[in-house]
Amino acid sequence: MRRDGESKILFPTMKPLDMPKKDAAKSEAAPTAPVKEEVIDFSKVEIEPLFKDFVDFDTFSKSDFRAVKVKTCEAVKKSKKLLKFVLDDGTGEDRVILSGIHEYYEPEELVGKTCVAITNLPPRPMMGIDSCGMLISAVHHEEGAEKLHLLMLDPHIPAGAKMY
Fold first, then answer.
1. Are 76 and 83 in contact (CB under 8 A)?
2. Does an H or E element contain 46, and which?
3. Other beta carbons less than 10 A from residue 97's beta carbon
4. Cβ-proximal residues to 32 (8 Å cutoff; 6+ apart), any chain
5. CB contact burial 111-140 (16+ within 10 A = b; e otherwise)
6. What Cα–Cα distance (Å) separates residue 119 from each residue in 32, 68, 73, 106, 152?
7. How far apart are CA 141 and CA 147, in angstroms?
8. Region class of 143: left (phi > 0), else alpha (psi between -120 and 50), else beta
9. Are 70 and 110 in contact (CB under 8 A)?
10. Mean pLDDT by 10-residue block, N- to C-terminus, for the chain (164 residues)?
11. Which residues lie across from 99 on neighbouring strands?
12. What integer pLDDT is reported at residue 28 of this predicted model?
């Protein structure tokens, strides 16, 4: 019973298991405003048609897709398009991949992100630097302009995790 004579019934609430205790107290104390989801109009989007030719399973399984964490990213000097990524691919050694996506991203916004790379392509020299793989992006056209989104994964996925 409360001091004013009224009884109050308490109902337990569930908290996420991975939430630190001090953050859990904050979230109970101050409710936050609901996050408004961005509405995307896909009616003006054009995508490339699917390939008509099939790839046999053995050929596909030779491709090694891995989660990679961006350790550093910088613009390549004397190039308007290339970004140089130094990546953690789970092997303990840095992997360098160059990608022509500077038109779409600034290097500093990609540091710390988890992306997808194909890691078993032969090294390809670009601007005097060996690019050892390829980052995977989604490309489409919208109102006549090409749009590109680097494929980014949940940050809980560890570097080196294999994609199937």
1. yes
2. strand 45-46
3. 27
4. none
5. eebbbbbebeeeeeebeebebbbbbbbeee
6. 41, 10, 18, 23, 16
7. 6
8. left
9. yes
10. 49 54 52 78 90 93 97 97 98 98 97 98 97 97 94 98 94
11. 83
12. 55
Whole-number pLDDT of residue 105: 97
150: β partners: 137
Is residue 33 classed as helix, strand or coil in its secondary structure?
A: coil
Predicted pLDDT at 82: 98
Question: What contacts 23, CB < 8 A, 6 or more positions away?
Answer: none
DSSP three-state, residue 22:
helix
Helical spans, DSSP H, in 17-106: 21-29, 57-61
pLDDT at residue 40, as a whole number: 79
CA–CA separation, 95 vs 13, rounded Å? Answer: 45
Closest by CA to 161, choosing from 122, 112, 116, is 116
E strands of 64-150, at which residues?
65-75, 83-88, 94-99, 114-118, 124-126, 129-131, 134-135, 137-142, 145-150
pTM over 0.70: yes
